[in-house]
Amino acid sequence: CLVAAMLIVVWMVIYRATGHSTYWEIELATYLIVATVLLGSPYCLRTKGHIGVDLISELLPARGRLLLSRLIAILGLTLAVMRTVRGPVAFPLRLFATAYVDLFRGLPLLLVFFLLGFGAPALQLSGVPNSALFWGGCALVLSYSAYVAEVFRAGIESVHPSQRAAARSLGLTYGQSLRHVVLPQAVRRVM
């Protein structure tokens, strides 16, 4: 893990010395986020103790981590529900959710970091933040919500169809049966 962090720092210094970029703050934050992901991996946390947790704590405050995790959970659950809604009217929702999940599960996280970290500030749009930490958080939310959506979708589909049928026979609408019967069981199964 330490070797990976050192390689990133060496790569950053060589890349900066050749003069390829003018956004040095974005580069630094991007490399710090990549180092955080590498050092925060379960393998590094098992082998080296708390190095990854310390680096994450220094880079992002507790409120930011909590906000990102809530956004990931909410977006993931919304995408999972969109993928499981049936009927011809919901086809555009299913198509959008399927395309989103397939796209962001197929893109490497580092590529999403680079696309958002370098691409969005380079557009120089008014009202768009230039903070690399903001764009790194957006990249994490976009990528991890696709994986969380698949986990929630598996949980929703694991609920037996007789549970839905029983809820519908009690007079619950589709949305009520999803909210009160299916989702509590699905969340309990995936946790």
Which descriptors apply to this entry?
191 residues, mainly alpha
Number of helices: 10
Helix content: over 70%
Mean pLDDT: 77
Distance between the termini: 28 Å
In short:
The chain is mostly helical.
What does this structure look like?
Helices cover 81% and strands 0% of the residues. With 191 residues, it is an all-alpha fold. α9 packs antiparallel against α10. The longest helix is centred in the C-terminal third of the chain and has 27 residues, at 132-158. Mean pLDDT is 77; it is low at 41-56.
List the helices and strands and how they pair.
Elements: H1 2-17, H2 24-39, H3 42-48, H4 51-59, H5 62-84, H6 91-106, H7 109-123, H8 132-158, H9 161-169, H10 174-190
